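Data deposition worksheet. Section B asks for the primary sequence of the deposited chain exactly as it was used as input, without tags or linkers unless they were present during the calculation. Section C holds the resulting structure in C-alpha cell form. Section D is free text for depositor observations; keep each observation to a single sentence. Incomplete worksheets are returned to the depositor.
Section A, Depositor: J.P.
Section B:
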Amino acid sequence: MDDTTRGGDGGSPRFAAALRRLKREGARLLVTGEVNAAVHARQTRLLLGSPREERVRVLALVGGSSPSRFLPDGVAPTDDDVAVVTHGDTRSTAADVSSTDADVSPSSAGEFPTDRLDGFSAAVQSAVDCQRTVHGPLSPAELRVGVVGAGGLLDGTGVDRVTRTLDALGECVVDRRGMFHCHVSGPVDAPETAALGAAFDARIDLRQRDGLPPEQRWTLPALDESSEWMLL
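Section C:
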C-alpha cells in the first residue's frame, strides 16, 4: 500500500506531541467516513481500549445494534466497569428493565424515544458520573466513552442542537481526562460533518479500498495538519 503506514502516528513531531497531550489531558474525537458498520465497530473496539489495561467504558448506541460487537474482546456489557446506554428502540443487553434518566447503573441503562435527545445526553452523563462514583478518581485516558451511530441523532433534530449536545458530552468526559469518540458515517466533506466537527479536538477519517484492509487518518484542526493513512 503505497500511501499507507503500518504504525506510529503518521505525522510530524509536533503532531505526535499534540496527540500525546490529548491522551494525557482528555480528548474529543469525531470518527467519520464511508465504510461499512464492521469497520466502525472495529474502530470503536480500539478506541474503547485494550482489555489488558485498566479502562472504564461507557458505550452509547443510537440504533438497533448489539453492544457486544463494539466492545473489545473479553469485555462484556455486564462487566462492572462497563455501562451501556441506548437510544431509540435499542435496549441494553445488560438489563431487562428500563431506567429513568437519573437511574443509570454501571452495567445498565435506560432506553429513550428518538425525540428525547436531552434524555439520551443525560443518561450518558449519568453513566459517566456513576462510573466515577464506583471507581473513584480516574487516571488520564482511563475513561473511554463512545457514541455509535450519532448521525441518527440528526433525524428530526437540527445540527446545531446535536452539536451542542455532543459538545456537552465531550466536555463531561474531558473534565475527567477521558477519551470521548463519536461516529458519524458518511462523506468526510459532508456539511453535517463539518458542522459537528466544531465540538471535537480531532477527526478520524476511515476508508477501505477494494481488496485492502481498512485504514484511518487523523486530523487535528488546531494544527491544520493530518497524519498519513495508517492501517486500522
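Section D:
The chain has five helices and ten strands.
Strands lie at 4-5, 27-33, 56-62, 82-87, 143-148, 179-185, 202-207, 215-220, 225-226, 229-231.
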